[in-house]
Specification:
- With 192 residues, the protein is an alpha/beta fold.
- The chain has five helices and six strands.
- The longest helix is centred in the first third of the chain and has 19 residues.
- It comes from Rhodoferax saidenbachensis.
- This is Cell division protein FtsI.
């Protein structure tokens, strides 16, 4: 009987404590915040989408020249463009906007807007590409195609995706003229 006394006494002591000391809402609140932050981060890391794409039929090409834009403050835009172009078997070279190069039949001109914000679950600000515009032009300046990227204004779905993940769908639309259906597009109604 002496061995039952300590567990019984412990049980009685626990029952006399207030409920808030046994089950605190603070850990549950922190868990809810962390789960929400991770869901937000997951959603905001989705690949980008091509928008406002215009494509004019033109002869196929396997090389192009990229005109360097000194007003774009992101160092990873050109590598992202070149990687996306290589996925379509298109080789590229980068030239300064002032250099006269007559050997380029097709030019890619771009601009990108950078914005600063805090990533979920961090306290520091970080720059990210919030918009980009890509245009393919012939050596004579004729527009062959144009496509854009913009962060989803409602949920910022691709806000924290890599620059490559943002621009690859835009490059694909620019080169092929095919724009995949938007993720948030409503389902089409069946014809009756």
């Amino acid at each position: 009987m002496a061995s039952l006394l300590p567990p019984v006494a412990l049980s009685l002591a626990v029952l006399t404590l207030s409920a808030c000391s046994i089950v605190s809402p603070v850990p549950l609140w922190e868990l809810a915040k962390a789960t929400g932050g991770m869901a937000t981060m997951s959603m905001q890391s989705e690949p980008g989408e091509a928008v406002n794409t215009v494509y004019y039929p033109h002869a196929p090409f396997t090389t192009l020249c990229i005109e360097f834009n000194p007003n774009t403050a992101s160092a990873d835009v050109i590598p992202a463009l070149q990687t996306a172009l290589r996925a379509h078997q298109i080789e590229s070279r980068v030239y300064d906007e002032q250099s006269p190069v007559a050997a380029c039949a097709v030019w890619l001109r771009y601009s990108a807007q950078m914005t600063w914000d805090k990533r979920p679950m961090t306290d520091s600000y970080q720059a990210y590409v919030s918009a980009a515009s890509l245009t393919l032009q012939s050596a004579k300046g004729q527009v062959l195609s144009s496509s854009h990227y913009v962060v989803d204004p409602d949920f910022g779905r691709s806000k924290w995706a890599t620059t490559h993940d943002k621009l690859a769908p835009v490059v694909a639309a620019l080169v092929t003229g095919i724009v995949p259906e938007r993720r948030g597009a409503p389902l089409s109604k069946e014809k009756s």
